[in-house]
């Protein structure tokens, strides 16, 4: 008989029973990898849906389920500089990137890791890691040096360049399909203060603005990484730019930032030298794993005229009210395409658009016209097989299926864009 399990959270801390409620008692101790293994074995025995949650906002909703079990790794939230000379940092999957930035600041170190402090380590560090230092540092996974992993059968392994190299390759871009990572060893970069700028533009001529913004971003020094948000506000279409110059060299940063001011009427502007940890300030919003939004993602080489016009049309037809561009060129594209499971190393931009309710069909048709050369699964909420073919090139996907067959042949980890395992 199947037990009556409804949204129970398996945390297995040493000082509490194996099944904890939605709110973990403050007195709970940090679980060990062995206890994560025990929790996984228990969850597998229940014959109900299973999800794995790290410590972030889980905007796609795939970190939870209906009527099943959630392995909550939130208590595995440690941040430790284990080798300052090598800039090697050990981070738990349950930490949030704002807390990581704050912990590394006294050491003069930083890790590029999203653009919001409330993002959890586990999800981002296995999917890719597009962030505010992306063009100067690369993706988060590009600096992953090793990981401790609980496999589908409950065994514990170390994955790095010398141990389980195929698994290590797969973790960097498709980790949610391969196991439960209990710690990440990541090489940080030397960084203290940065130049943080914010611009608000009138984006009434949306297509023209997007095209010009894209050109300026591509022509910028790689120290500059920016995120653009276009949204309807009070009947106006506003474009908000958040830009980070990796360092405190204002003599170079200011001219690069000023080039963005001339592309459309400026409504507001600011720039300041601040610690990177301030940009990534910790955020601890209540997390329930639910997502009430639907979004579409795409990776493109350029924001060309056709792409810009298509996005403007989405706003004009009210298919969307929120559109975002992340700059992902520079150092990200220095890495060979086959070095990690994240194989997209030619694109300069990552696109995301919210889908308004009632506009799903129209949005699907229009979004299909985007000249995408890839897809970043962290921003895609449509859980269908077609997304895998866009997220992973054919050779990459075939290799992932073989790795999946070796480490998770029964497809235990199938709650997040599941990859079908194959055996040799």
Describe the structure.
By secondary structure, the chain is of the alpha+beta class. Helices cover 26% and strands 25% of the residues. It is built from twelve helices and 18 strands. The strands form four sheets. It has a seven-stranded antiparallel β-sheet with strand order 15-12-14-13-17-18-16. The radius of gyration is 21 Å and the shape is globular. Residues 1-8 and 10-27 have low confidence and may be disordered.
Largest sheet: 7 strands, antiparallel
Tell me the Rg in angstroms: 21 Å
According to DSSP, the number of beta strands is 18
SSE series: EEHEEEEHEHHEEHEEEHEEHEHEHEEHHH
Assess the beta-strand content as a share of residues. Answer: 15-25%
By DSSP (H or I, 4+ residues per run), the number of helices equals 12
What's the rounded overall pLDDT mean?
Answer: 90
Query: How would you describe the shape?
Result: globular
> What structural class do helix, strand and pairing data support?
alpha+beta
In the predicted model, the low-confidence regions spanning at least 5 consecutive residues are 1-8, 10-27
Measure the end-to-end span.
35 Å
Order of the strands making up the biggest sheet: 15-12-14-13-17-18-16
Percent range for helical residues?
25-40%
Short summary:
Helix content is 26%, strand content 25%. It has helices at residues 33-45, 97-104, 121-127, 134-137, 165-174, 206-218, 250-258, 276-279, 305-316, 360-367, 385-391, 394-407, and strands spanning 8-10, 19-20, 50-53, 69-72, 79-83, 88-91, 109-110, 144-150, 156-160, 180-187, 189-190, 193-202, 224-233, 236-245, 266-275, 295-300, 322-327, 349-354. β8 and β9 (156-160) form a beta hairpin.
